[in-house]
Design brief:
Strands 2, 4, 5, 6, 9, 10 and 11 form a seven-stranded mixed beta sheet that branches. The termini are far apart. Helix content is 0%, strand content 50%. By secondary structure, the protein is an all-beta fold.
């Protein structure tokens, strides 16, 4: 069974950085696409960043473009989200997820989800 486990969340001051990790297990794929989403209290879950199956293409929400970077290490079966220049509005629970549709930004097109990791940015 496919499992996703996020780690790396925490409390950081505005302007700081965090790197989230998503460890993938229970599969036999040579490669996979991945997405990161987040959900703040009282708000809907929103797309943050994605990496395509090929690994050669990444895409981001406008709100994080230029500050966040998604990457994948196939040897470690891990996907990362490097978050720089963090803002208080980045505070949310962050989730990694495996899509049914490569390149999707829609959460209903993602099949497997991690449990989430909390990121809190103080002002």
């Amino acid at each position: 069974q496919v499992q996703l486990v996020e780690s790396g969340g925490g409390l950081v001051q505005a302007g700081g950085s965090l790197r989230l990790s998503c460890a993938v297990s229970g599969h036999s794929w040579s490669s996979y696409a991945m997405g990161w989403f987040r959900q703040a209290p009282g708000k809907e879950r929103e797309f943050v960043a994605g990496i395509r199956w090929s690994g050669r293409s990444t895409f981001y929400a406008d709100s994080v473009k230029g500050r966040f970077t998604i990457s994948r290490d196939n040897a470690k079966n891990t996907v990362y989200l490097q978050m720089n220049s963090l803002k208080p509005e980045d505070t949310a629970v962050y989730y990694c997820a495996l899509p049914l549709v490569d390149g999707s930004r829609w959460d209903h097109e993602y099949e497997y989800w991690g449990q989430g990791t909390q990121v809190t940015v103080s002002s």
